[in-house]
Amino acid sequence: MGRKEEIIKERIKKVVELMDKNINPYAYRFDVKDYSKEIKEKYKKLKNNQKTKDKVVIAGRVMTIRDLGKLIFGTVQDSQGRIQIILQKEETDKNSFELFKKYIDAGDFVGINGSIMKTKTGEISVLVKKLELLTKSILPLPEKWHGLQDKEERYRKRYLDLIMNPEVKQVFEKRQKVFDAIREFLTSRGFLEVQTPVLQPIYGGTNAKPFESKLNSLDMKVYMRISNEMYLKRLIVGGYDKIFEFSPDFRNEGIDKLHNPEFTQVETMWAYANYEDNMKLWPELVEYITKKLYGKTKIKIGDNEIDFKAPWTKIKFIDSIKKYAKVNVSDIKDLEEAKKIVKKLNIDVDKCNSVGEVLINIFEEIVQPKIIQPTLVYDYPKEAAVLSRSEDGKYAKSFEVIINGWEIALSYCEENDPVLLKKKWEEQEKALKKGDEEAQRMDLEFINALETGMPPTSGVGMGIDRLVMLMTNQPSIRDVILFPFMKPEEEKSDKE
Question: Which of 217-221, 356-360, 440-444 has the highest average model confidence (pLDDT)?
C-alpha cells in the first residue's frame, strides 16, 4: 500500500471513530465573525508576547500542524489569508484540545473561538479557547515544500491551486474588478447592458468554427455562439442607441496561450457613431480600467513598461507593414505580385486567395509582434472584417487594438446595406462549401432586420481574458480563467 493510500485509510478510520463518538465530522454551519487579514491589521501594533482579552471567531482550513505535546501550533487559511493558531493544554478547552490532537489533520476545516496574542517572535496568533471540526478532509494536501508546481495539474485542479497558492486569487479578484470597471465606464457613457442568446439557430458575427448540438424538443440543430454581434445589431434596429454585453463565446478551434475554446468578450454597439468615435472611446475605457486597478496608467508587463494613457498611437494598416516589415504594399496590383513580394519575408502564403489575405499574413507574422505600446491599427483589408463597411472595396472601415503584440479588441463600421451584406454572405457560403470551416453563414432573418432599417452603427468586441492577462501580467490565458479547458487526465494508480 502506498503512502497516500495509508493516509486516506487512516483518515476514514478517524471519520468512523468520530461518528461513533456522536461528533459530526461534516457540520451544517458555523457563524464566522472574524477574518485573518482583518485580525492581523487590527492587532499589528501589539507588543511581542502581549495577550489580549479580545474574542474572535474564525473558521478555515488547517494548513500546518506542529504538535509539541502540551502546546500545538497550527496555521488556518480562510478567504483572506492565513493566521497562526495556538492550542495550550492549560488555556484550551479540554475536549477541543483532545479533538485537535487526535483527529485533526492538515486539510480539515475547523471553527475556532479564541483570543488574540502576539508571540515572542512577533506573529499575530489566535489563542484557541474552543474548537469545532467542520469538515474532515479525506485526501491529503500536496506536500508542504514541493507544493503544487505542475502547471497542468494547477489548471486541472484549480481548487488545489487556490489552496496551495492563495496568491492566485488576486488574479481573479482583479479580473472581477475589470468587469466592474468596464460596466461603470460604459454605463456612465449612456450604454445599457443587455443579454442575448448563447444557443443560436445560425451562428454568426465573425469567422470561426462553432460547436454544434441538437435541440430535441424542436428537432433542430443549434450552435453555441461564436459572437453575440448579430443579436446586438437586431437591438439597434429595434431602437436602442448604445448597448453592451459581457458575452461568453465558444469557438471550436485551437488552444494556445491566447486561445481557449470558451472565452469572454465585452461587445458594444453604438448607433449613429463610426469607428473613429470608438477609436477615441476605447483608449479612454482601458485607461479607466488601469487607473481603477493601480491608480496609474503605467504598469509592467513582461519586460516592458506599458502606458495605457489615452490617446494612443494610431497607424494605418498598410503604413504599419511599411514601418515594421519594411515593405511597401500600397501599390500591389494582384495576388501574384503580392506573393512575389512576401517570398523574401519567409511567410507561407500559398493558401491565400487574395491580396488582402497576403497582407493580413504579413501583419500577423511580422508586424503585430513588434507593436508593444497600445496602438490603434486601422483600415484593414476587407477580408479581415466581412461584416464591415468598405468605401473603396479594398479596405474595411475597421481598427484593431494591439498591445504587447496581442490583438485585444476589434471594431468596425457595421454594414447596414442589406443588398451588399447578402452578397458578402453568398460568397461566404461558397467558401464554406469549398471546405472553409470558419466561413460565415447566410442569416436571412438578419437580412430582414437590415431591410427594416439599421442606422449607421459601430461596434467593438474586446477579449476580456486577454485584457486581464495584460492587467495581471500573466503569460497564458489559462492563468486568468478559473477553469480553462483541459484534456481529461488519464486514470493512473498512485503508489506514492
Answer: 217-221
